[in-house]
Amino acid sequence: MKPLGKLLLVSALLFSPVLWAESPKPSEAAKPNDSDALQGVEKGKVIFDINMNSAEKLPLYLMVIQETVEDLKRQGVEPDVVLAFRGLSVKLISKDRENMELTDYEHLDKIATQIADLQKQKGVRMEACSVATRLFEVDNAKLLDGIKPVGNTFVSLTGYQAQGYANIPIY
């Protein structure tokens, strides 16, 4: 290629708006949608059956639940979401840390923050199983703010499923 041709090519590339246009970051790129699954759905009725005893792992699942609520809204579906804590998970949603490992405190702080953030979302509520709190000696009065003690989450799961809620287990 002749020098003049090279100069024209380089100039054209340098001043090309395509090269300098900002491309979307991967997180900002169009997110795939769930239009097939949500066809005709106006309200996203789901109960998350949380029976997990790992303070280290629960924050990941709470993050995904938060994203699920946001994804429902983004796709024009009103969230109607219940987080039902049962089993040893009730220890992870208590303000009382007396019997918890010191190494779990950082994770418990994150869980408390995520729970508070989720509760700010319209259409999200939380409950804890009183059978589990009794068996694992967790005082219902010391549950994180906004978590309602219920008689038995097996009954809750039965009732919510009879009302058409999707049951998503988190174990």
TrEMBL record:
The keyword Signal applies. Keywords: Signal. Residues 1-21 form the signal peptide. The lineage of its organism: Bacteria, Pseudomonadati, Pseudomonadota, Gammaproteobacteria, Thiotrichales. It comes from Thiothrix lacustris. This is DsrE family protein. InterPro entries: DsrEFH-like (IPR027396), Sulphur_relay_DsrE/F-like (IPR003787).
